[in-house]
Amino acid sequence: MMMSNPKRLHPISAVANFLKQLKELIVPFVIFVVFGSRGGNGEILQLVITAGVVIAVFIIGVLSWLRYTYRLEEGELRIEYGILVRKKRYIPLERIQSLDLSEGLLQRPFGLVKMKVETAGSSGAGDAEAVLTAISRRDADFIQQAFSAAKNKFSENRDQVDLPVKTRKVIYRISPGQLLLLASTSGGVGVVISAVFAFVFQFEEIIPYEKVFAGLEGFIANGVIFVSILVFIGFLIAWVIALIGTMLKYADFTLRKTDKDLIITRGLLEKRQITIPLHRIQAIQIRENLIRQPFGLAAVYIESAGGSLKDNESARVMVLPIIKRSRAAGLLKAHLPDYELQPGFFKAPRRALNRYLWRGFLGTLPLVIAPIIFFRPWGYFALLLLIFSLAWSYLKYKDAGWDISSQQLALRYRGIVRTTVFMKKNRIQSLTVSESYFQERRSLATVEAVVMSGTGGTGGTVLDLDRKEVYAIYKWYSYTGMNRNTLIKKEKRQ
User: What is the pTM of this model?
Assistant: First the structure.
């Protein structure tokens, strides 16, 4: 098979370009149509302008498609594009880090895929290095084989690629019951509600919210039960939307492994494939939220040296969406033998408990005092927030821990969810040990470890561990062949 001649994307790419441009104009378009001039020639002018914008956007989408070509030549993926100014982008195959495939609503009926090309240089604030919006499955397979050949130095002929098919072993496949359980406990309700508020307040300069809220104030005061029912229904609808969205996103989730990659496929409406080269794995995270933790359930993520601000999912990839915490280690051990996922943790000493409780108490106190002063007698219910904060602080204390297993550091801490992060010594970019004046009096210290992930770093911070144990971690890390990228810090905080 040859691909040295320039090829165009499938014509459906023109439609995708059109819809993408239209999506970016949706908010000003809605404002213009809904709140534009009324009556007479104003409506005709509004209609003409609207039709003109839509036609212009469509023409731009078609021209973008006509001017966009791609080909494989001399070990490079060569892309040329641009309507007025012709641009050329040549990407050496050996510089490509991963090729992610997806099948959206536009691609699937035509047997096409969308290919995202990620390189080490595309992990900044922008998009991927290149995106082939709509190409045939055959072309996608050819590019993947050429990419594998370049990485393994198997091919010397720039036009011919003849590779043995890589064996793919299935590690995990989600069942219908697990999918329902995942969607029910994902916590996506908050995301849906936040999205609704973000959309509504796009129009804060047009909609008189103060008058609306003032008009509702009397009704709310006299209809507490009715308002409570409306709030409950609103949360129920948000939960159903989140449930359906999560099930569509993670339907048929499958994790496979080849010799050098982990490959994830998922999705019903948009089928997506994510490839994680094993050599790019920076850390493993096990996350347990409050709903799943009592049932021993967790999700497993891999931190990868990729992704961007616009596509952080390429940096932190969920490889096991929902699984028994005790089963995750055994399942991954055979495929990621360098990691020990069942360590015995050293916990924070008992003398650290007061510090955890005081932090929670002082942080919540202003939120409790204000309602009591200004909204009595209902403000006294804010005292429940103080009780919740102290309970949460106790959970943070109970969950804090660390462990060293040969060449691996494990840190466990709680934010909104309980997180356990496993980092190999040679992947740790920086290790920070710090002590405040009050910590020093109690022989306590804080440790923070960071690995490279996406546009910056990730890792973990554990507060108020035994000072001797923290310095044992410091000594373990400092006695290694450090390179110029390795950083060790010892800080004194006042």
Answer: 0.74
